[in-house]
Design brief:
Largest sheet: 7 strands, mixed
Oligomer: single chain
Strand order of the largest sheet: 10-9-11-12-14-13-19
Number of strands: 21
Strand content: 5-15%
């Protein structure tokens, strides 16, 4: 309820935000890092934050410093991020102003926020999806208010960002699943220098009409009373009905787009005057006089706010800078899985296929961890995955834990960020490696950076399964290899098992790792249908078996006598390359040692370099197109670290450098490495 005291509190916060913006602008040399402020947007932001509870979640965007003030952060805390100081509570000096992340239990929680417009919609909707799951399963992970109120989620967006396709994916899921989330869209009619009529056919309120059962509200976001009432309605609806709402608030843009893109660069005097007519500050000030506050009381509130901002700014300038020796901290959260555990060879005598080893690993994990969920395209009950890699799981664990998604790779990847923040353990799948690219935006922009830029508060625990590789005429859109693309992304781990035992052990380790892990699973090894890959079937390890990431395996040793004579080659490979190398080794008895990397990042450099030093000749073998590949990069690393031990230059062998794998099986074979081609390359090395 809005009382005179609450109105005065709102005004103090508004004046504080305005004073902060003025202070930053007056000290541009000190405030050297790019920043935006909420100038003009304050009323709707304060009306939102003032009504949120500590059990709630909010995702502010980069102009939302008034939201942060209204949920309880101080100017000093915000200024520490502005000036990139060590004690910045959000990122430790690593990210821009108003890019928060918080697990402070006295305030609404905030997952890592990035600069990419609209990208927060998917991870934040993932939070709402997770809350719904925890609520329906009566999980102890669900955090309620002290008086038992259920949490809601607020996702704040600029209207220009609503044109992003990923916002549409988020809205689709929110409406489909009826999630307790509010999309607050602040419309200032500008997308940097592009005006609204240049870049969109309608505003967010119009756009939202296309999403059935999405409640829509709109208000004058410069009017604090109207904003408060609108957000009160939205919050009450989401909290009680557990359904989504979109609030469209029209606001003036009184400041610059950012400190680096200033309003005078692209806006004329007429536009600035027009926006100035809707300044929320004089409106709220006039309202205070109308409810009985004397002029001197209002002046005193303004003076106190300015004094606080001035003092905090001076204090923030003198705060210590980050320790440069800590620059590599929090790239990953530490994992507890560091040693191989359990029985790799169990009492079972029947060998299992890789696809079944993965299925059994996930089944055992879901039995042990009720917060684990599995989702992706076609993994639900009817099909259980196009490779039957999730068969029977929906029947065993229910449609709420194993379910289909729409064709939304970005949502599949990005939603795990929200679920992970709640303590859930998502396992998700992209149907084919060739289709991961729509999901890369979320993987790179959000998931990979979350731990680092939140200063360790929000690592993303997720397993992303990706069937990959070529065999049997799969064609150009179902046969691609993507490891080099993934390995350019820092902050994720990449695993590539080549047999059933490794698959099970690595799947368990990936699940228990608190960081994003991509499991590349070769389709040609799933059922050992490719000639020469029968060894991919192994006796299944027991349910306690865990194989740490970053441990390579020597799957074939060379003859010691031949090693002493310099008549051997080390083949460094993974996936299908293991079987091409094995077939080649049959033609060269005792002369080939095969190192199966198993994990591409983290990489077991010690095992690789030791193998190279033993043999002096090395072939790095990959299924990927060779130019600019991971294999070539590894070849250079080997040359740099083992130069004095090499008897020949490092050989690298991959597929031909074509843009796609042809569907014709003869053309496919012409493109890919084969056992015969590998044998020929090894002969070349041995002839040095």
């Amino acid at each position: 309820m809005l009382t005179p005291d609450r109105l005065l509190h709102a005004y103090k916060l508004l004046v504080t935000a305005r004073s902060m913006a003025d202070t930053y602008d007056a000290n541009r040399q000190v405030c050297k890092y790019v920043h935006s402020t909420s100038r003009g947007h304050e009323a709707i932001q304060l009306a939102t934050g003032m009504q949120l509870l500590p059990c709630d979640w909010v995702s502010p965007y980069y102009r939302d410093d008034s939201i942060l003030l209204s949920v309880g952060f101080t100017p000093y805390e915000l200024m520490l991020q502005l000036l990139a100081k060590k004690e910045d509570p959000f990122s430790g000096g690593r990210s821009y102003y108003c890019h928060p992340s918080s697990r402070n239990t006295s305030k609404p929680s905030i997952i890592h926020q990035s600069s990419a417009t609209g990208m927060q919609a998917i991870p934040t909707t993932g939070i709402a999806q997770g809350i719904q799951f925890l609520e329906q399963s009566q999980s102890p992970l669900l955090r309620k208010s002290d008086d038992g109120k259920l949490p809601i989620v607020v996702c704040s967006l600029g209207d220009g960002s609503v044109t992003e396709g990923e916002v549409s994916e988020a809205l689709q899921v929110a409406v489909l699943k009826q999630l307790p989330i509010i999309y607050l869209v602040q419309d200032n009619q500008w997308s940097i220098s592009a005006s609204a009529d240049e870049v969109r056919a309608g505003n967010a309120y119009d756009y939202a009409a296309g999403f059935k059962s999405l409640k829509r509200l709109q208000c004058d976001g410069s009017d604090f009373i109207r904003s408060y009432e609108t957000m009160e309605t939205a919050i009450a609806y989401a909290r009680a009905e557990r359904r989504p709402v979109l609030v469209h608030a029209k606001v003036p843009l009184l400041g610059h787009h950012t400190s680096g893109v200033r309003r005078e660069f692209y806006r004329n005097r007429e536009d600035l005057l027009k926006h100035g007519l809707y300044d929320p500050l004089p409106k709220l000030r006039l309202l205070l006089t109308g409810v009985g506050y004397a002029e001197h009381e209002i002046n005193q509130a303004e003076a106190e706010a300015l004094e606080k901002v001035t003092a905090d700014f001076t204090r923030a300038q003198h705060a210590v800078d980050p320790d440069i020796n800590a620059v590599e901290d929090h790239v990953f959260a530490p994992t507890t899985v560091t040693e191989e555990k359990g029985k790799r060879v169990s009492k079972n005598t029947e060998r299992v296929m890789m696809v079944d080893a993965a299925l059994h690993a996930i089944e055992e994990l879901m039995e042990e961890y009720p917060e684990a969920v599995l989702y992706g395209q076609d993994v639900g009950g009817r099909l259980g995955g196009v490779f039957r890699e999730a068969a029977t799981l929906a029947d065993k664990f229910g449609n709420h834990r194993v379910f289909n998604t729409a064709i939304q790779e970005a949502y599949i990847v990005g939603s795990t960020i929200g679920l992970s923040a709640l303590g859930m353990k998502p396992i998700v799948e992209i149907q084919f490696a060739d289709y991961i690219y729509p999901g890369l935006n979320q993987l790179i922009t959000e998931a990979s950076k979350s731990c680092y830029l939140s200063n360790g508060k929000f690592p993303v625990q997720m397993v992303l399964r990706v069937p990959t590789g070529a065999y049997g005429g799969g064609g150009p859109y179902h046969s691609g290899s993507i490891e080099s693309t993934l390995l350019t992304v820092k902050g994720i781990k990449v695993v590539y098992p080549s047999n059933a035992a490794d698959m099970k052990g690595l799947m368990k380790a990936a699940f228990l790792d608190p960081n994003p892990v991509v499991m590349l699973e070769h389709k040609g090894l799933y059922w050992s249908k490719v000639p020469g890959t029968d060894d991919a079937r192994t006796i299944e390890p027991d349910r306690n078996y865990i194989l740490p990431l970053g441990k390579a395996n020597i799957v074939l040793e060379a003859d010691a006598a031949r090693i002493r004579k310099g008549e051997t080659v080390a083949v460094i490979t993974y996936g299908m390359g293991v079987y091409w190398a094995k077939a080649a080794a049959e033609q060269l008895p005792g002369q080939v040692e095969i190192v199966d990397l198993r994990t591409l990042f983290p990489l077991d450099e010690e095992t690789v370099f030791n193998a190279v030093r033993r043999h002096g000749k090395v072939l790095v073998l990959s299924e990927e197109q060779q130019n600019n590949s991971f294999a070539e990069a590894l070849g250079l690393r080997i040359s740099n670290h083992c130069y004095h031990f090499l008897d020949a230059k490092v050989e690298v062998m991959g597929a031909r450098n074509l843009p796609a794998v042809p569907i014709n099986t003869a053309l496919e074979a012409a493109m890919l490495p084969t056992a015969e081609k590998v044998t020929g390359r090894i002969h070349k090395l041995l002839a040095y």
